[in-house]
Write a structure and sequence with these properties.
The protein is α/β, with parallel strands linked by helices. It folds into 2 domains: 146 residues, Rossmann fold, CATH 3.40.50; 36 residues, no CATH class. The protein has 6 helices and 8 strands; from the N terminus they run E-E-H-E-H-E-E-H-H-H-E-H-E-E. The strands form 2 sheets. The chain has a 6-stranded mixed beta sheet with strand order 4-3-6-1-7-8, sandwiched between helices. Strand 3, helix 2 and strand 4 form a beta-alpha-beta unit. The radius of gyration is 17 Å and the shape is globular. It comes from Acinetobacter vivianii. GO terms for molecular function: phosphatase activity. InterPro entries: His_Pase_superF_clade-1, His_PPase_superfam, PGM_Phosphatase. This is Alpha-ribazole phosphatase. One of its GO terms (cellular component) is cytoplasm.
């Protein structure tokens, strides 16, 4: 089974930590996603199902694409971005000016530090993995082999970290460009999901 992870494009609050804020795509953000998907379709990529975070910066594009391709669409709350608590909608520059030490710790050791009143890394990882397990089960039940998941940078970075078996504190160094596609293969044995990266 294969998951192609599409990060949403630029949004109206792209200069901030958006987390669960429901900001919209800019015109440029929509074009970033459209361009990436068009290249994939030109390369004969085909999906059995479109899965999306319910936040509109993912969902609106996913709805349009599912209609265009005539594919089923599933919304998964677990595929939302990490929740940044008091930092939601705040620029990193502002946080740096007010809480430089906490921000530095968060960038270096995200598994140990999190935004005030935000989601801890453990909570985030548990939520995303629960979502991936649900997606795997649904794909198995429907005999779907390939899914496009429209999601967020944090989700893609976490899964990339797990795929590459890198230290989870390297999370924020992982690639997840706006509007770009990242591919993983899923397998299931010993009651666990296992990942392999697709280049």
């Amino acid at each position: 089974m294969r998951l192609d992870l599409l990060r949403h494009g630029e949004t109206t609050f792209s200069h901030t930590l958006r987390g669960h804020l429901d900001d919209e795509l800019t015109e440029q953000g929509w074009l970033q996603m459209q361009s990436t998907i068009q290249q994939a379709l030109n390369a004969q990529m085909q999906w059995d199902v479109i899965i999306s975070s319910p936040l509109q910066r993912c969902q609106k594009f996913a709805v349009a694409l599912a209609q265009q391709l005539e594919k089923p669409l599933l919304l998964h709350t677990e595929m939302k971005e990490m929740f940044f608590g008091d930092w939601e909608g705040v620029s990193t520059q502002t946080i740096y000016e007010t809480e430089p030490e906490l921000l530095a710790n968060f960038w270096q050791f995200p598994t140990q530090y999190h935004a005030p009143n935000g989601e801890s890394f453990a909570q985030f990882q548990q939520r995303v993995m629960h979502g991936v397990n649900r997606i795997y089960t649904k794909m198995q039940q429907n005999h779907w082999h390939r899914a496009l998941v429209v999601t967020h940078g944090g989700v893609i970075k976490l899964l990339t970290c797990l795929v590459r078996q890198q230290a989870l504190d390297d999370l924020l160094k992982m690639p997840a460009e706006l509007g770009k596609l990242y591919s993983l293969e899923l397998s299931h044995h010993d009651n666990e999901i296992h990942f392999v990266e697709n280049k």
